[in-house]
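Trying the structure run again after the queue cleared.
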Amino acid sequence: MIDILTAGLAPDFVPYASAWALQKRIHASVVSGDRPDTLMLLEHEAVYTAGTRTEPHERPRTGTEVIDVDRGGKITWHGPGQLVGYPIFRLSEPIDVVAHVRRLERLLINALATADIEGYQVAGRSGVWVSHAGAEDKIAAIGVRVEKGVTMHGFAVNCSNTLDGFAEIIPCGITDAGVTTVSDVLGCTVHPRDLVDAVASCFKTEYAEAAA
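Done. Tokens:
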């Protein structure tokens, strides 16, 4: 059983610092056993988050805030039109972070399928990918951390967001592939709010079966 917390969607964008503070509080409650596993879903104000492998020259100088975070990986952008999810889940022993990431990918692929998006996994790379306009593009990014057996950080699905923020960086350090959005692939506007129920349903079903 998991709890779904919709922390803020357009027009109520959530500043990254506020979401991070809430995520840490929920994480502490899950660690202590006072709260069930929780999936936070939200949209952020525009921000760059720099993972632990981000190099100084990879940081943009556009005026948009850059926040250093304690997840793995490099730099990425979050902002309006992007559905961000923070699964704060206790992992079973032995802890397998890669298996957790693969599971998140599969759940997002299932959620995107409800919108007629054919997403897939790419060996050696995290996230969800699509074939679009003759190219292989990332439509959802994933970056996680595990502390005291409970996960933090999570995923971002590009729904109706602009791609301008990605133009100032090398998203997740990948130089030979692009990024796209659900709206671009389908040719119509799909907002994060339109995918929230599908994502929540896929997670609830998966973790209900796991607990059975």
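The chain has one domain: 3-211. Worth checking whether this holds up in the mutant runs.
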